Amino acid sequence: MSERLTHITVYEDLVRIYECTPQIEMLLAPVSKQYDTGLIGSGTRGNHKFIIPIMKMCKDRWEEVKDDPEVQTLLVNATGWLTYRAADRRLKVVSI
Question: What are φ and ψ of residue 62, in 5° steps?
């Protein structure tokens, strides 16, 4: 399977998990509105210096920032990047 296809598949699976898990349904709205942003994030290397602070800021200030389109874009991209990292760190090891 193509490496890029693997990253996209992991992101799509995460979106399905969001759809089925009421505890994290707050993340479904941003992902639904900006699905492609997450796809781009799922194919992006690097970004580790930016993604963790973005996720922390969203966690700490969610009620303030949840309706901000710019923050939603950052959050969905960060989510995509996390799936990239998961696929790179775990799935490649399994498939080799």
Answer: -55, -45
